[in-house]
Structures are given as structure tokens and as C-alpha cells.
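Deviation from plan, reported transparently: zinc ion complex.
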Amino acid sequence: MGVIYEVKGSSNDFTSCELCGRTELKGTVVLQPLDEDGNPSGDACYFGTSCAATAAGWTQREVTTRVKAAQTAERERENTERAARWQEQREFCAAWYLQHYGTANLIAAAVIADTDTVDLSAQALRAHRESLTTH
Ligand SMILES: [Zn+2]
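Because the crystal trials were delayed, the predicted structure below was used instead.
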């Protein structure tokens, strides 16, 4: 039985196939070898599409489908992370307004601070950045 692979995505940085040595490919397929239990085993490989198909026992079409699925999953993961960061930032700012001006509402806090919302939110975001770099 051959090695089991999972497609991690594609790479434009690696343009040489590690299997056959062909160079100047448009891109490579990133394959992660898996052990019998489906856990990552060893380093990821960068193969051309046809070699990826040969190595994993898939058709080239399957390789393409799996690359797309991996890219979609990666995008979704990034979106989720970004949403989590935004949420965290919103919560930090609300807590910051509350702490400094007694209200979590930006507009109300800006009135109390005698400034505009752009200036005050910039201050809160700066405090947020500082809180991230200090721990
Ligand atoms: Zn190759």
C-alpha cells in the first residue's frame, strides 16, 4: 500500500516537483503524508499535479478538486480567525470606553471625552494594540 496523503493546498513559491525534479512549474500541490491513523507524518511534499496524482493514487481531476477544497477550508479558517479578532477588538474597545468614560458606547464616550468618535476609537485601538504587544 502506498503512502496516504492529504492535500494541504497549492504553492506558488515552490515551483519544482520534489518527486520527478521538474522545475519551473506554475505551482505545486502541497501534500502532507499521513500515518495509518491519519496523523501528519513527516514534512509536507511539493509535487506537480500529475506527480501528486501518481503518488497519492488519485486522478488529476481529484487532485484539483482536493486542492480547491483545501483552499476553501483555508479561506474559511482565515475568515473565522479574522471575525474572532474583530470581535475581540470590539469587546476590548467597549471595555476601554467603559473603563475611561463610564459607558461602553463610543458616541456617548466621545461626548464625555469632548472629542469625536474617530479620535476616541483610534485611542481605543491604540490601547488595544499595546495590550497585544505587552503579553
Ligand atoms: Zn513531478
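Residues 60-101 form the longest helix (42 residues). We consider this an acceptable substitute for the interim report.
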